[in-house]
Specification:
2 helices; 4-stranded antiparallel beta sheet
Length: about 100
């Protein structure tokens, strides 16, 4: 298992009350691929430098996780299909 960091931008249409469910969905997607969430940090709502899918801001969530290297592509497909996510970035944490 390798360690990765996932930065996800959740749509601003998701209210503060619905945000825990959206972050739980990210956690479920990771666990469905056989991964393990180490930490999940909500950075809050921030403005973009340019519009993303017609939105000027979004909720940032940073997740550290462990996952088999061969399962990252499947996780990224699942993240792309998620309607709440505007963008995501999955990077391997260097040793």
């Amino acid at each position: 298992m390798r360690e990765y960091e996932l930065v996800a931008i959740i749509s601003p249409e998701i209210t503060e009350d619905e945000l825990p469910q959206a972050t739980e969905k990210i956690k479920e997607l990771i666990e469905r691929q056989g991964g393990k969430v180490i930490s999940l940090d909500h950075w809050g709502r921030r403005k973009f430098a340019y519009p993303i899918k017609h939105h000027g801001e979004g909720n940032y969530v940073v997740t550290r996780l462990e996952l088999e290297p061969g399962r990252t592509a499947e996780l990224e497909v699942s993240l792309r299909l998620s309607e709440e996510l505007l963008r995501h970035l999955l990077v391997r944490v260097s040793d």
